[in-house]
Amino acid sequence: MGTVDRIRVIVLGSTGSIGQNTLEVIRSFSDRFRVVGLAAGANALLLLAQAAEFRPAAVSLLEEKELIPYREAFRQLGVRIFTGKKAAKTLVEEVEADIVVSAITGIEGLEPTLAAVRQARRLALANKEAMVVAGSLIRTEARASGAEIIPVDSEHCGIFQCLRKENPDDVRRVVLTASGGPFLHTPLAELAGKTVAEALAHPRWKMGKKVTIDSATLMNKGLELLEARWLFDLRPEQLDILIHPQSIVHSLVEFKDGSMLAQLSATDMRLPIEFALCYPERGEMLLPPLNLTEVGRLEFFAVEENRFPLIRLARQALERGGSSPVVLNAANEVAVAAFLEGRIGFTDIRMVVETVVERHSWFQPESLEAVLQLDLEAREQAINLINQRL
């Protein structure tokens, strides 16, 4: 396949964990894919290195001041540069591409994700927050444009594979699995004193800081429930979670006759990324095959809500819909950032999220602008709550 025929890819969040793994996959398929756009937050030096290697048509950087020492180096590469809060969205709108990998963490990824859907690009979706806060809007836009959404989260990728040739009416239940994070067996009385370093020491996955903390609180699974509801058009009662410490079974689908399909693979994000890029074909094997005799056993446990209280709040948001997921996500993002900065304790994350959620008066946001305004207001409430406690 010649250079002209290669599939054009934009990577949003290229300097993060998913972004870097995406570029590693593309290196393995350099005859099939070419990078035409890269978007980052503040890591201008790494973005420069990526641009020098992949020679995209354009790059974007959220923090313009970070670009200053490297502007001339980017200019010499001959790439267009977009900066500021709308930079990633502009990149998606201005650069022709076939696939957009949405891997910007948090609500910052919403607008460029929506831009990709509106332009009928294939969306390889790793930004769960976009679907959490605006799932109805994204689905509506995807139906209108014909955009294809392929999930990159390992759990949702597994569900996607299990459901590919199945009748949706035959699905009884979809089960997401969770590793349980670093505190699965920690005595409950000790959780309040857990440090940032301990919370970031995930036993199975290597991920960005925010999603790793979400894994420790299990909020990542709460957000994934909300994401799955919109990705697969499921009812809240069809969604469930099981703790699976080995992280080999990524999801299970139970059908009305009692049969179950499960998707198993090694614990490595390159696999769902490769699937999303290559779909509907299968890529080549990037890792050694899964050896179940070495795995030894597969365990499953119910979720302890006294250990993971944020799951209850996520389930409530799933049932209520409307503005509830927006507020839940905003409060969680603020609380996790405060914990990572050492401003609150680990169990204070729950306190902040719960308080903001309980004070919220539900309504149905009708537009992107309404979602973004509500997100801003919920963040301000969470920040004020944290500042009052300090």
Provide a descriptive summary of the structure in words.
By secondary structure, the protein is α/β, with parallel strands linked by helices. It is built from 16 helices and 11 strands. It has a 7-stranded parallel beta sheet with strand order 4-3-2-1-5-6-7, with helices on both faces. The model has no long low-confidence stretch (mean pLDDT 94).
Instruction: Assign an overall shape.
Output: globular
Biggest beta sheet attributes: 7 strands, parallel
* Low-confidence segments: none
Number of strands: 11
Helix content: 40-55%
List keywords for this structure.
390 residues; alpha/beta; 15% strand
Indicate the topology:
Elements: E1 7-12, H1 17-28, E2 33-40, H2 44-54, E3 58-61, H3 71-77, E4 80-83, H4 87-94, E5 99-102, H5 110-118, E6 122-125, H6 128-145, E7 149-151, H7 154-163, E8 171-178, H8 196-199, H9 209-217, H10 219-231, E9 239-243, E10 249-255, E11 260-264, H11 270-278, H12 292-295, H13 310-320, H14 324-340, H15 348-359, H16 368-389
Parallel strand pairs: 1-2, 1-5, 2-3, 3-4, 5-6, 6-7, 8-9
Antiparallel strand pairs: 8-10, 10-11
Q: Could you give a quick summary of the protein structure above?
A:
The chain is an alpha/beta fold and 390 residues long. The chain has helices at 17-28, 44-54, 71-77, 87-94, 110-118, 128-145, 154-163, 196-199, 209-217, 219-231, 270-278, 292-295, 310-320, 324-340, 348-359, 368-389; strands spanning 7-12, 33-40, 58-61, 80-83, 99-102, 122-125, 149-151, 171-178, 239-243, 249-255, 260-264.
